[in-house]
Amino acid sequence: MLEELKEKVLEANLKLVEYGLVIFTWGNVSEIDRDKGLFVIKPSGVDYNKLKASDLSVVDMNGNLIEGLKPSSDTPTHLELYRRFSDIGGVAHTHSTFAVGFAQAAREIKPYGTTHADFAFGSIPCTRDLTEDEINGEYELNTGRVIAECFEKNSIDPNAVPAVLVHSHGPFTWGKDCFKAAENSAVLEEVAKMAYISEGLSAKPASDAIQNKHYFRKHGANAYYGQ
User: Catalytic residue positions?
Assistant: First the structure.
């Protein structure tokens, strides 16, 4: 079962390359097996074109490496998201261009149209900046904490908004599994690109009516879009 999960997480990490979201080693995807209390994540600093399933890092819920290579430096962030967002099964992180642009500007991504509304219920938030103590302390763990704080403080449902921008850093996304987390990274980048263009054209956010229609036709008990 663990070998199957490694193969799955390997494929999801390679999806980031296929989607054009990462260069060099700039990104990672993980998936959790909550029954086993373990998750699998990309190892630190390994080129995607050399990555093998046997390289992938298996980590427990205390952050201990169980097998594989040294895990991604972002592992504590993934771990904190799994702890705080109990429904998610996969997490992805990239440094994709337009999403990073909004993060570096400390700007949320507002819902300007139906593409955004199909993806998320409301704006994609941007966290506060980490304090100097948080940066110089357990930086990656504190990154996860500040993401969770952002959602709790603003009463945002992480199931309805599967993405965040970390101030001065970049995007994290999540989903039911590693494939959905990677897909959500691709959608977020497109939404960020569209928002950047829309703001340059002085667009206003879409009406609540169109946002609600497009979100709820794809999500929730009465969804009817798709198979």
Answer: 118, 225
